[in-house]
Amino acid sequence: MPSRDTERIAVVGGGPGGLYAAALLKRLRPGREITVWERNAPEDTFGFGVVLSDETLGGIEHADPVVYAALSDAFVRWDTIDVVHRGTTQTSGGHGFAALERRTLLRILHERCASLGVRLRFRTEAPPTAELAACHDLVVAADGVHSATREAHARHFRPTVTHHRNRYIWLAADFAFDSFRFEIAETRHGVMQLHAYPFARPSPGDPGASTVIVEMRDEVWRAAGLDTCGTAESAERCAEVFAKALGGRPLRSNKSSWLTFATVTNQRWSHGRTVLLGDAAHTAHFSIGSGTKLAVEDALALAACLEEQPGLSAALAAYEAERRPVVLSTQRAAAASLRWFEELPQYAHQPPRRFAFNLLTRSRRVTHDNLRLRDPGFTAAVEEEFGCPPGTPPMFTPLRLRGLELRNRIVVSPMDMYSADADGVPGDFHLVHLGARALGGAGLVMTEMVCVSPEGRITLGCTGLWTDEQADAWTKITRFVHDTAPGAAIGVQLGHSGRKGSTRRMWEGIDEPLEDGNWPVVAASPLPYAHGVSQVPQALDRGGMDAVRDRFTEAARRAARCGFDLLELHCAHGYLLSGFLSPLTNRRTDAYGGSVENRLRFPLEVFDAVRAAWPRERPMTVRISATDWSHGGTSDEDALAVARAFAAHGADAIDVSTGQVVPEERPEYGRSYQTPYADRIRNVLGVPVIAVGAISSWDDVNSLLLAGRADLCALARPHLHDPHWTLHAAAAQCYTGPGAPWPLPYRAGSRPPPTGRTDAPKPRLTLD
């Protein structure tokens, strides 16, 4: 039964979230005594327009038809997005937006609260939360991003507030744009961007109104002198920059100032009788229009949980359990969008359609498949510009690297199997494992890290290429792939374990030393991988480096004779060459340590030797860790320097991974979480890249390729789940072309087998 211990409720903050929570809670139980404290006047507000989604409106309609009807009458609706860049406008339709003036939204909520009997105390600072909690059954803290409630009880809520690098200002134009408009201005000071959307519809004698947000990097803001401008002058300067978009009309402010966005998170959303709601609990970047939406949805969930749960404690726990996953998902999308706009200058070179597609898919909530449904004409034009043959999804568009043409853009990522015999010889397991994935349609199948010497192994189950017996076994595998899966390519990844070697197999104790029989390990510096667990490696001297380099060269020659189509040099994940690259693992004081140029010296020596031994017509790639996910590790600039150097020495693509360099890493896991690092290298340096890291759907692959964030996509776990992942992706997209041919013996399985009927006769009559 519903909670009955929330009869007196205090709401701190009279924004949309707080007001709507008050209205809902009062409507559900008219006997409640509810007071809203708002320090500003009723007519005061910041910003201009508010965007709400159809999903949010559906919840409002169900919970309070009166508020829904008033909002519907006030909404401006549109479904197109215009992206203006370098004098061209790309228009994409089918998006569906609804916006209204923030003042109108607040007026509707004020009137609804007043009609229900909620006490609204304007121009009044709320008493301290502890004081309110002493005389109220529930305190709803909806006091915004700078929440005094949150800060007063920080040790309970445990907030984190992260400020970001871009500056932005909220302004308005006194006319209605006819779409959501993004415009890029490349000024002499740097790139500036405009986000604009209508919030008041035109009427006779009234041109309507639009929200206009101008955003740029902090260094651009300072170079343009905007850091010394007042509000009025800032509005004038912004209107000058975007004069064409505005038709020469001015911009106006409303208590506007230049801000940096703050992402707010809290480890807990409630403390005793106090609960956080809206921006006090969480924020999401304005570029996905989610702040008011999240606050209103919080109010809906809080009201529902208070009705459904038997007590306040259970209700607040249920509220947080329901809302936290939704908020985290939104914050991940918002973070991706925020980063995209922070890194916008790196995309300025892109052709207009690709740039527009990139912008539209920046948060990953809009994808290639989704956009194809919304606006098939626009998406088809982007595909044509990309080079997709007619009827061919982007992932099945071929790619040439030197003399190798890959039939599609899917790579089976290198995955250590730890299943070789004690002499490092691959066996039937490897034949079946790699052969199955080649038959499964991938354009390129990569081996696990193949070790160049016995002492360069991670475990006793790792494969190698230091003997002819090993080479013979690999030849059997490459021959099977070429003969049985025509068109599939197979690549070898060569590496040396460095300080991470001489350990047990993953399922026996990852990174733990052998119980006995450990061999000595080497590294750039004498630093163990896990202090107190791993053995201390010997720092390589010049003779040791020469010996390692020669081992790589010998393995490369064997790999060429085995018939591998591509060779990848493993310089990631904390193994030997990666250990030279990271400042966390390279503490040398000679010519091979210190600056990134020095740290690159030995990996480049190995690369040059391998490239000279590897057939000229066959491509060679390098896998790097573009961040160590640890303070003081590889920086963005370091990653660019490393990629630039390998490309200058002849690498045909950079395989951009991250982490696994130090055990104390803190990765930011999530969907496609490593792709921004590949994206940056590709678009800053113009170097082909392989993107990796939690890419799981064919829709994500198509989106990344079309947006110009990657040239190839490497997938690991999806290929463990389904060796025929690529063929099934083709079937799901109704594609039957040369990019994904079904092996003749499997062709009968190219359609899903029939299943039993799951539909049932519909009732003929509906009775009350």
TrEMBL record:
<dbReference type="InterPro" id="IPR001155">
    <property type="entry name" value="OxRdtase_FMN_N"/>
</dbReference>
<dbReference type="Pfam" id="PF00724">
    <property type="entry name" value="Oxidored_FMN"/>
</dbReference>
<dbReference type="InterPro" id="IPR002938">
    <property type="entry name" value="FAD-bd"/>
</dbReference>
<dbReference type="InterPro" id="IPR044152">
    <property type="entry name" value="YqjM-like"/>
</dbReference>
<feature type="domain" description="NADH:flavin oxidoreductase/NADH oxidase N-terminal">
    <location>
        <begin position="395"/>
        <end position="729"/>
    </location>
</feature>
<feature type="compositionally biased region" description="Basic and acidic residues">
    <location>
        <begin position="759"/>
        <end position="768"/>
    </location>
</feature>
<dbReference type="InterPro" id="IPR013785">
    <property type="entry name" value="Aldolase_TIM"/>
</dbReference>
<feature type="domain" description="FAD-binding">
    <location>
        <begin position="9"/>
        <end position="328"/>
    </location>
</feature>
<dbReference type="InterPro" id="IPR036188">
    <property type="entry name" value="FAD/NAD-bd_sf"/>
</dbReference>
<dbReference type="Pfam" id="PF01494">
    <property type="entry name" value="FAD_binding_3"/>
</dbReference>
<protein>
    <submittedName>
        <fullName>Bifunctional salicylyl-CoA 5-hydroxylase/oxidoreductase</fullName>
    </submittedName>
</protein>
<feature type="region of interest" description="Disordered">
    <location>
        <begin position="745"/>
        <end position="768"/>
    </location>
</feature>
